[in-house]
Design goal:
Elements: E1 7-9, E2 12-14, E3 18-20, H1 37-45, E4 51-53, E5 57-58, H2 75-90, E6 95-100, E7 118-119, E8 128-129, E9 136-137, E10 142-143, H3 149-165, E11 170-174, H4 180-185, H5 200-218, E12 223-227, H6 241-255, E13 259-263, H7 275-281, E14 285-289, H8 294-302, E15 308-311, H9 313-317, H10 321-327
Parallel strand pairs: 3-4, 3-15, 4-6, 5-6, 6-11, 7-10, 11-12, 12-13, 13-14, 14-15
Antiparallel strand pairs: 1-2, 8-9
Helix pairs in contact: 1-2, 3-5, 5-6, 6-7
């Protein structure tokens, strides 16, 4: 079956086509945002995934989300993540670290000195953000001055260097879900008129400078980028997403990076899907994500619409998801109440398949 066939992703050979999606679980320690032993256990439990992409690590102290979110901007965080990568590798797995900056989707109440969040332009997100005093509207961010952007790129470079020192097999640059890089990409949130705004070329510059630094540190075959063209929930839209992300795909292809990670489910109407066009422009591996099942993932890979499929909630609730899919075994239901809070409960206590469970083979397979 195609999901269990090996596949090459950049410089790395993966044993199967199942990728563990980057999943914020808010289990790191406060105030240092260093992953403790439970995080080590969590990732090592899921090492049978073809590839693990870690929860997104904040690249700076002025990018702070909910309590328990992890960081990658101090030596202490790097050393703590080293324990995670060592455990995953000891269990036979492979792990990339996703890196991001919140930009306008931070809140003063969680930032050092109650600073105003930064963004390419002073355009607030739509909706409310949880704060210690309850839900509050997203703040209007402070527009970055031109001279502030190169140091911000350097901030990402420092985080990428720490990822390599921590033993990660590669990095995924998080350019999706309305966070800072996505804010630069979209013309609904980027109203700049300088070298980082206006045209698609200029709006893509921030992302591509970060990608170039990642390539310089890890090599092109160990770098991925995640995008979410259909994400508009917080009023981050673009007037021509097909043109924007088509250009991004072409530029990433020219750089020869390992993969493009696209959030686009099978529920997206055929006429609105961007995967076919992006696949023509990007010759590296394509990872598709969002609400895939065993059956829909199998079809996407078998039909050549993707090379790998990322699973989120299914990996949360099923540390042995690969084996459960292989056996067509029942799946543990995820506990949504513990997705973003708690300690070990709902995190590392999901049961594995019983060793004595009868194995069900694929038709024609011999075991």
């Amino acid at each position: 079956m195609v999901l269990f066939q090996p596949g090459r992703l950049g410089d790395i050979e993966l044993p199967n086509r199942l990728v563990m999606a980057p999943l914020a679980r808010a289990r790191s320690l406060e105030p240092n945002r260093e992953p403790p032993q439970r995080v080590v256990t969590y990732y090592s439990q899921r090492a049978t995934a073809g590839l693990i992409i870690s929860e997104s690590g904040h690249v700076a102290a002025d990018s702070v989300s909910r309590p328990g979110g992890s960081g990658m901007h101090t030596d202490g965080q790097m050393l703590a993540w080293r324990k995670v990568t060592d455990a995953v590798h000891d269990a036979g797995g492979r792990i990339f670290q996703q890196l991001f900056h919140l930009g306008r989707k931070a809140h003063q109440s969680r930032l050092p000195g109650n600073a105003v969040p930064i963004a390419p332009s002073a355009v607030a997100a739509r909706g409310e953000v949880p704060t210690p005093d309850g839900p509050r509207p997203w703040p209007v961010p402070r527009e970055l001055a031109p001279a502030e952007i190169p140091p911000l790129v350097e901030t990402f470079r420092r985080a990428i260097s720490l990822s390599k020192a921590a033993g990660f097999d590669g990095v995924e640059i998080h350019a999706a879900n309305g966070f800072l890089i996505d804010q630069f990409l979209r013309d609904g949130t980027n109203r700049r008129t300088d070298a980082y705004g206006g045209t698609i070329v200029n709006r893509s510059r921030f992302l591509l400078e970060i990608v170039d630094d990642a390539i310089a540190i890890f090599g092109r075959g160990r770098v991925g980028v995640r995008i979410s063209p259909h994400f508009v929930q917080d009023n981050i839209d673009d007037s021509n997403p097909a043109a924007l992300f088509g250009y991004v795909a072409e530029q990433l292809d020219a750089r020869g990076i390992a993969y493009l990670h696209l959030i686009e489910s099978d529920a997206v109407p055929l006429k609105q899907r961007l995967a076919p066009a992006l696949r023509r422009r990007f010759r590296g591996s394509l990872i598709l994500a969002e609400s895939y099942t065993r059956e829909s993932a199998t079809a996407a890979v078998a039909e050549g619409r993707a090379d790998f499929i990322a699973f989120g909630a299914l990996f949360i609730a099923n540390p042995d998801l690969v084996e459960r899919f292989r056996r067509r075994a029942a799946l543990n239901p995820p506990d949504l109440t513990t997705f973003y809070n708690g300690g070990e409960q709902g995190y590392i206590d999901y049961p594995f398949l019983a060793q004595a469970e009868t194995e069900i083979c694929e038709p024609g397979e011999v075991r």
